[in-house]
Design goal:
Strand order of the largest sheet: 2-8-7-6-5-3-4
Radius of gyration: 22 Å
Number of strands: 13
Structural class: alpha/beta
Order of helices and strands: HEHEHEHEHEHEHEHEEHEEHEEH
Length: 380
């Protein structure tokens, strides 16, 4: 058991509001992250769903060993709940009948898995990603020993299809693995899968694999009328999302789905009794349980309402920035608002990243008008 290591002579007196069951250093941690939550609007972490009803499960190890469709021999799991979660997202992202997937440790693992499948099916391929792709994409390409090409982006962060055509034409004799970003980290730009396929057609590349990194914007775009082409019905071979962004799960997790399962399912491992079709092997079952809880709490109408509420806050933020004449812009339907880089003290208080003279706020579910008003006052 880990005990409180604070020396007795330095141990502070309990605060009136402190939880007597928490050691001081953990109470300090709780105080710090609680205080930071009031001004943390520069990174994509949703709030507003209460996960505390799941607290009794913290006393059990939920180990999802290997493939979610095989229970295996280890009894302490919730794979039946994971399968429900996967089936929901398969419908949301319009998967074909023979889809496959699993609950991951987050978007990075989802990207790694998608690129691994692409390399498995097209071992001689060149990997392409935009300069605005998530940093996990070139990392996964390096780990997989995939030769890769970085494609330029437009000023707003979308992949430059002209440069993609130029780069792909140079390597037209080899298959292509392309990562499309559905909500870039800085501007929330969305790459169009239909345009990517058209570009590869024009470059003469017919053997291809497209992975859709939809960690940030996949869920809200899926419930948006006139949405862009980004999911499995639009030509993605795999798609990954994050659970801790839109749903604000207190455990970092995600989902990856593919258009079809492995061509040859591995034999069950004797020790676990389940085939291992995943990157991580043993997986934290709490991620699946938390996603199931979020889906139960929200329901389909709640996901749409949560999306619209966040966009309404983004609209409000743009109005407040206009009122103080602070330069800003925003992609249609985005939670993210780009704004001219504020002074360091404002950026530090509101935890705002910055690059090339611009910063951003992300109006994730849970951000409210009071926070926007306070930021506008600081900027003014």
């Amino acid at each position: 058991m880990i005990t409180d290591l604070t020396p007795m002579r330095r141990r502070p007196k309990p605060r009136p509001s402190a939880d007597p069951t928490l050691a001081p250093r953990y109470q300090d941690l709780l105080d710090r992250i609680t205080a930071a939550s009031h001004t943390s609007i520069g990174f994509p972490a949703g709030r507003g769903i209460d996960y505390r009803p799941l607290a009794p499960l913290l006393g059990a190890l939920l180990n999802h060993v290997g493939d979610p469709w095989s229970n295996g021999t280890y009894p302490s799991h919730a794979k039946h709940i994971e399968r429900d979660v996967l089936t929901y997202f398969a419908r949301l992202f319009r998967a074909p009948a023979d889809w496959s997937g699993y609950v991951t440790s987050g978007g990075t693992e989802g990207n790694h898995y998608g690129l691994w499948l692409g390399r498995t099916r097209l071992p001689n391929a060149i990997a392409y990603h935009s300069s605005a792709a998530h940093y996990s994409v070139p990392k996964a390409e390096h780990l997989l020993n995939l030769p890769s090409v970085t494609v330029a982006t437009t000023p707003t962060g979308k992949i430059d299809y002209t440069d993609l055509h130029r780069q792909a034409t140079r390597h037209r004799s080899r298959p292509a693995i392309v990562t499309a970003t559905i909500g870039t980290t800085m501007t929330e730009a969305v790459d169009d899968l239909a345009r990517i396929h058209e570009t590869l057609d024009a470059a003469g590349i017919h053997h291809r694999y497209i992975h859709s990194d939809a960690a940030l914007a996949g869920v809200p775009l899926a419930v948006t009328p006139k949405r862009p082409a980004f999911d499995l019905a639009d030509g993605a071979d795999s798609i990954s999302i994050s659970g801790h962004k839109f749903f604000g799960t207190p455990l970092v997790c995600g989902v990856v789905l593919t258009r079809r399962g492995p061509a040859n399912l591995p034999a069950p491992i004797r020790y676990t009794g389940a085939p291992d079709t995943t990157i991580s092997g043993s997986r934290n079952g709490l991620g699946a349980v938390m996603l199931a809880h979020a889906l139960d709490v929200l329901g389909p109408s709640g996901i749409s309402a949560r999306t619209q509420q966040a966009r309404n806050i983004a609209d409000y933020a743009c109005q407040q920035l206009s009122a103080i004449n602070w330069p800003h812009w925003r992609h249609p339907n985005a939670f993210t608002i780009m704004l001219r880089e504020p002074p360091p003290d404002v950026r530090n208080r509101w935890y705002l990243p910055a690059a090339d003279g611009w910063s951003h706020i992300i109006c994730m579910p849970g951000v409210n008008t009071g926070q926007i008003d306070a930021l506008a006052r600081d900027l003014a």
